[in-house]
Amino acid sequence: MNRHINLTHIDLRQDLAAAFRWAVRLNLHEAVANHFSLAVNPEGTRFLINPNGRHFSRITASSLVEIDANDPATMRRPDAPDPTAWGLHGAIHRACPHAVCVMHVHSAHATVLASLADSRLPAIDQNTAMFHNRHVVDDHYGGMAFEAEGERCARLLADPKITAMVMGNHGVLVIGRTVAEAFNRLYYFERAAETYIRALQTGRPLRILPEEIAEKTAREWEDYPGFAAAHLRELRAILDAEDPGYAD
Fold first, then answer.
1. How far apart are CA 216 and CA 214, in angstroms?
2. Model's pTM, two decimal places?
3. At what angle do helices 179-201 and 227-242 cross, to 10 degrees?
4. Model confidence pLDDT, tens digit, residues 227-246
């Protein structure tokens, strides 16, 4: 018997559930806070998101909630998402159809970067170069991401070239066209932020890549054939062997 016979978007749900489980394994999560969302219609307005108050380690494909960013009654539903999830992710999915998958965390190194007076991420190695000219810094933190704050943040992602937002005094948000693309960026942004923070800790001058090399490397990351998909495929294979419950 197919246990998913009445479940919509099962492959997408399993991809997203795998991303939640790996966020825990990589210590990118924060208690029952933070959210990942994934649009499931061409307009980008219907999306899957984690249920309110559920720890990332307990997310399954079937527990993800499907909601409509244009439905004002969403927050009156019995399975309504966290208000900040609705405020931030709903605003982004309404305004930015190119942001198919949205992942927001308060991971340690990205949040350290977000706490610096200058929160830009310079291209000092191959990983940091992935985000060269492709990240934006929000310098105007206005409190928790309820609806007005979410709409303000969404405006910073209007340019499809921007794939990551350093949310000043807050955390980081990445977007992608697929779960694989977004999670790959989330993983590498945290790695890149860690490299940069550790480099700053030496107190030595930074070896910053020239503009042309940094931009070339960023484009090469974008064009790298199948890299993000292979990354997620391997993560799912590990979960299939060690923690198959994510797919339920």
1. 5
2. 0.96
3. 100
4. 999 999 999 999 999 999 99
